[in-house]
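Ticket #4471: structure export looks truncated?
Reporter: QA, pipeline team
Priority: medium

Steps to reproduce: submit the single chain below to the structure queue and open the exported record.
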Amino acid sequence: METVQLNNGITAPILGFGTYRISPRVTAKYVTEAIKAGYRLFDTAQYYQNEAQVGEAINNSGIPRDQFFLTTKARTGGYAATKRSIEKSLRVAHQDYFDLMLVHFPMPDYMGTYQALEEAYQEGKLRAIGVSNFDNRDMQRIIDHFDVLPAVNQIETNVYTQDKSLTQFMKQYGIIQEAYAPLGEGPNPMFSDPVLVQLAQKHHKSVAQIMLKFLVQSGFMTIPGSTNPQHIRENIDLFDFTLTLAEMEELRGLDRGTSSWLGYQG
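Actual output as written to the record:
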């Protein structure tokens, strides 16, 4: 597994397993499946209501906790509510710390939310903090008002959705881009796109593997999720081939500048 270094010096796997839309009833089962396949980065959120099951699978894996990188996200608005929610998430997931906690989206009092995360980071309850679904204006406000820079901004990113200006902004501050919905969401034409199909045939990989490799090779943390055991195994099988510079440029050209989501879902 390749890794990335966050701007506070810690490292994280570049590829992980996302648990959005996985029912709490079966989350532990599929996280366990992903652990067996080699995943060590897992992404959950208060909003998903499956923090407990993700934590359960990690704790029961027989693998030392420090071999995992566990991310969750705060859905609370404001300082006091977020202080309480951090403690609740740690308790629910049966964890002493999270490796990364994000402000899930820019709520009205996201500054208070971030303040609570910064304090928890300074107390050692969070190894890194960041944001999700933030544009450069909201990130700049965070950067200007807090001592601890966001380490990550988790945003929708795939071959059809590439916000290159936002990517460039984050690079200035060493903020890692983390791609959710890396394979799109809902009905989308990516899986039949002739460029992707041709590259999949050339590299003897699936179209999904080409899409994920593009993101990983771009240096983005990437969190595909699945409840299909074959797809879980295939999605991590990305590290035995490399896309050429010309192929990467061709994939950058597929950007449509639109979201595959009908509304906020991240």
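Status: closed, not a bug. The export was complete when the record was re-opened. Leaving a note from the reviewer for reference: The domain at 3-188+220-225 is CATH 3.20.20.100 (TIM Barrel).
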